[in-house]
């Protein structure tokens, strides 16, 4: 299972005829190492990780870095020069960067509430785009970005780097090939011992981050969408927003929540996400498990276990040794630009993961069962 570029015929089979007339603008059909001039928008924590990965790739020239923080711009510029590359231009306003005709691609890593306006502007400028997850924070904006991307005829790859894990690809293949039978039960969780950022930062505010169902768990929703090939029909959930109030008084994101997602195929998937867990590995692991009549699998760990009367034996799917998933994701992005291929994890996958995040968030906030149809009707 190759989660890199896919050919146009394969993409159209996945996406349908609606985008059949959309041409993709390739930088080069014949020279795979032709330099692609790229601009970085947002060079904080995640942006720096993306920059470091891009600097390891041949044929990538960082022409400009953009950030409202002048010190972040300076650090990024120094990092690029230390790698033996040409000094980039330092720009404060992303609109100035997008005006540049010598820049054909943009890598964006901004706070979540800025994703939609930045991605909208980049697509309007017809730049190839690697944008961090989540795609955006509303149904309306997700639909608008799908339409805009397909009209612009550019590459838009969403930052779901887990798709490039060979272990996870093998895990997904195992399920989709019927290795455990049709899943009827699932459970997963992410656990931490403390908030990942300091009090008052944008992560703490749902209007800016979308809450953890979108900012962080969207990675997990993308994996579920990928392996199951369907979105949940409904979800019910509950949560707490007061457990870290003494530490971060203005914080209004969820400190803990749990939700059960129901699928039309019959699967019920229970999810727990907590920022207040003991440091013992027994309580702080991340897991994504599916159980079928023939066997069970932990997608995150690559462990396959037999069920009585099902699989003869279990197995450990080989782990990714020395694989930098961010670098692999960017390598695929630039390959798509050069060849005119479509990213296997693009704007449509970004939309679907956002929809699941919005469904779970609505269920948790309301403390009741919420259907996907309700979410789609409430587009704002």
Q: Briefly, what is this?
A:
The chain is an alpha/beta fold and 380 residues long. The protein has 14 helices and 17 strands. About 4% of the residues have low confidence.
Describe the structure.
Helices cover about 35% and strands about 20% of the residues. By secondary structure, it is an alpha/beta fold. It folds into 2 domains: about 5-160 and about 325-345, 3-Layer(aba) Sandwich (Rossmann fold); about 165-320 and about 355-375, Dihydrodipicolinate Reductase, domain 2 (2-Layer Sandwich). The strands form 3 sheets. A 9-stranded mixed beta sheet has the order 15-14-13-12-8-11-10-9-17. It has a 6-stranded parallel beta sheet with strand order 4-3-2-5-6-7, sandwiched between helices. Helix 5 (about 115-125) runs parallel beside helix 6. The longest helix has 20 residues, at about 345-365. About 45% of the residues are buried. Mean pLDDT is about 90; it is low at about 10-25.
């Amino acid at each position: 299972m190759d989660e890199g570029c896919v050919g146009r015929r394969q993409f159209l089979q996945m996406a349908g005829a609606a985008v059949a007339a959309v041409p993709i603008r390739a930088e080069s059909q014949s020279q795979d190492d032709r330099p692609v001039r790229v601009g970085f928008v947002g060079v904080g924590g995640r942006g720096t990780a993306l920059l470091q990965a891009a600097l390891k790739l041949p044929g990538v020239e960082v022409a400009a870095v953009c950030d409202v923080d002048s010190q972040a711009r300076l650090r990024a510029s120094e990092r690029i020069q230390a790698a033996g590359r040409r000094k980039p231009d330092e720009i404060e306003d992303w609109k100035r960067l997008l005006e540049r005709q010598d820049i054909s691609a943009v890598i964006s890593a901004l706070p979540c509430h800025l994703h939609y306006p930045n991605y909208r502007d980049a697509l309007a400028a017809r730049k190839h785009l690697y944008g961090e997850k989540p795609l955006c924070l509303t149904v309306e904006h997700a639909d608008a970005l799908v339409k805009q991307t397909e009209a612009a005829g550019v590459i838009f790859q969403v930052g779901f780097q887990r798709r490039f894990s060979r272990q996870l690809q093998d895990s997904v293949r195992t399920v989709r090939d019927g290795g455990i039978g049709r899943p009827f039960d699932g459970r997963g969780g992410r656990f931490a011992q403390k908030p990942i950022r300091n009090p008052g930062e944008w992560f703490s505010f749902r209007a800016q981050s979308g809450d953890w169902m979108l900012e962080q768990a969207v990675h997990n929703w993308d994996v579920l969408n990928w392996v199951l090939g369907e979105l949940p029909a409904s979800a019910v959930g509950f949560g707490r927003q007061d457990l870290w109030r003494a530490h971060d008084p203005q914080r209004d994101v969820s400190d803990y929540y749990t939700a059960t997602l129901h699928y039309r195929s019959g699967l019920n998937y229970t999810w727990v996400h907590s920022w207040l867990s003991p440091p013992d590995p027994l309580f702080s692991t991340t897991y994504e498990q599916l159980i079928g009549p023939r066997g069970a699998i932990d997608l995150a760990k690559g462990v396959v276990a037999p069920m009585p009367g099902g699989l003869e034996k279990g197995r450990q799917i080989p782990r990714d040794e020395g694989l930098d998933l961010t670098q692999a994701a960017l390598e695929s992005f630039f390959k798509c630009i050069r060849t005119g291929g479509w990213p296997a994890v693009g704007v449509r996958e970004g939309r679907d993961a956002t929809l699941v995040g919005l469904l779970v968030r609505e269920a948790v906030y309301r403390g009741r069962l919420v259907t996907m149809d309700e979410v789609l009707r409430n587009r704002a």
